[in-house]
Amino acid sequence: MKIKIVLLMLSLLLMTSGFSSLASATGTQQTVQGMQGTTPPTGTVITGTSFPGTPASNTIDGNLLSYWSPGNSDGILELTFPSPVSLSGVQIAAFASPSSDENFTLYGLKQGEWTQINTTVSRHVEWNSSFQPTILEPIAVSPDSYDGIRVEVATNSGSWASISEITLTTAEICNDMNGFKFPTGTTISGVSYSSHTSNLALDCDLTTYWNSGTNTGQVELLFPYPISMNAIQIAAHAYPKETVKYKIYGLKQGVWLQISSAIILAALQDNTTNPTQVKPISVNQDEYSGIRIQENGSISWSAINEITYYPNYKNGDAFVNIIPQMSSDTLPNGRVETSSALSQSYLGYQAFNQVNDLYGWVATTKQNEWISYQFSNPKVINGYSIGPVNDSVGPARSPKNWEFQAFDGSSWITLDSKQNITDWQPGQPKYFTLTNTEYYNKYRVLINGNNGDTYLSIGEIQMSESQARPSYNSPLNLIAKQNGQNASLSWATAVNATGYNVYLNGVKVNNTPISGNSSNFTGLINGVTYTLGVSAVFPNLESAVTVIKHTQTGPSQSIVPKMQSNTSPEGLVEYSSIVNSYTNGYYAFDQVDNDYGWAPNGTSNQWLSYQPTTPKTITKYTIRTINHTDGPKRAPKDWILEGFNGTTWVTLDTRNGVSDWVQNETKLFTISTPSSYSKYRLYVLSNNGNLYLHVGELELIE
Question: pTM for the whole thing?
Answer without folding.
Answer: 0.40
